[in-house]
Amino acid sequence: MNRELISVIEQIGREKGIDKEILFEAVESALQSACRKSHATIDNIRIEIDRKTGEFCAYLRKRVVDEVTDPETEISLAEAKKLNAEAELDVELEIKQERPPQDLGRIAAQTAKQVILQKVRDAEREGIYSEFAGKEGQILRGIVHRIEKRNVILEIGKAEAILPEREQIPGERYNPGDRIRAFVLEVRRTAKGPQISLSRTHPGYLARLFQTEIPEIQEGIVLVKATAREAGERAKVAVASTKRDVDPIGACVGLRGTRIQVISRELRGEKIDIIEWSHDPATFVARALSPAKVSSVVINQIAEGEGQPSAVVIVPDNQLSLAIGKKGQNARLAAKLTGMRIDIKSESEVETERSPAEAAPAEDRAALAALPGVGPELVEALVAAGLGSPAAIVKAGHETRGELGDCMRTGPSRTCLGCRRARPKGWLVRLVRLPSGTVVVDASARASGRGAYVCPDTACVERALSRGRLAHAFKKACAPAPDLAEAVRAAGRRGVGVPSCEAGSGADVCETGLMAVRASGR
Hints:
39% of the residues lie in helices and 24% in strands. By secondary structure, it is α+β, with helices and mostly antiparallel strands. The chain folds into four domains: 2-129, NusA, N-terminal domain (N Utilization Substance Protein A, Chain:P, domain 4, 2-Layer Sandwich), CATH 3.30.1480; 134-199, CATH 2.40.50.140; 278-354, GMP Synthetase, Chain A, domain 3 (2-Layer Sandwich); 356-519, 2-Layer Sandwich (Hypothetical Cytosolic Protein, Chain: A).
């Protein structure tokens, strides 16, 4: 019988994948519980099974005392010395019973059965949890077993996993027996055993598919830096290469798109945009909004822990709808991909916000040009300063007119690299190219050689530093200094680069115009 017990334990261990030691401990625990159930007085018993022969022995724990009052739990010191020469008072000894309890009864046997079954179930659940706990974030294949309230139950080896409705790709239909792949979202312990949650909409599923289907990603030559998805419709993936001679986008697309088509079919025809990742946040944001073309990007950095960084993106008017996408989809995916809040504006919107006075009516401009000493350049300067009509000059006050006169003159004008408009030279900041090729601010406004001019305005500065305008202006290869944009804005605030005006020239023009306006009654 004992040999049969060992054979049964070995067979169960093989079938259920449970260690034999766990089963032996389960049988020992079951016999111990049965003994306690059958013999209410025996509460200090321990059962041990020989792993080779299957024989089991019972041990009773007894306390060593001077005078025995309860033979079931106590033993005299003299008898204890016979069993163990080192025995002392108030020490518990385990005494082997010559005949273990035999008559356990039906209830005790039923108790033993329940304990063994419970131990086996617990061992099975722990084995399943250990097997899948380390597979979170990986892709598993399963067979659809059944569908419960739109939740799909899959068989994955010896375990069952659930694919909730919210984690299913919209429009997909599943039937029992279908083989599908899914992303392991979470493995949890529950009262009914481990619960394995799957997903087919998680961005990590897309990243794992790229790793599975593209050898360069498996080898670490191409890296998936970020993913963003709207399951079943569109996704964006940012990739980078660790080797200069490997094109990350071409490696992911494959010959005639074979690689990306396999991934798209797995995701029910989901459209996937692959972009090249960049260390520069502005460049990354511009690429994330592809296929729309971006004019400039301004990153608003926020101190750590204070919130989400944001970016202001300026696009041509004909690219605005493409940058935003259908129902804002392209902008949402770009925001998820970059981790920034993105504000998209057209060039016309920026122009309107930057200088609303430039939209002055034609009659007001004509009235300004009719003032004594006011030429076309000065008209543009007055409009840029917000004085787009004779009435605006009257309302500005003497102090404002004096400040305007200090930096205006009727002399030469220059074209701003950013807005491409002719401005009075005194309103612009001069840039020069050093022999090293670096473009810096001409603080003295007297440096020799070719110079370029730009308005000390954020939008103009951003435009001037993009699209190779500097190289075109200097007719040579050049690169802006790292802090050039801030230096231009600072120079504009300090008035650096503004040539000195002839005494009273600008102010006289304003005051002469003011008298003419008052005399005309406008």
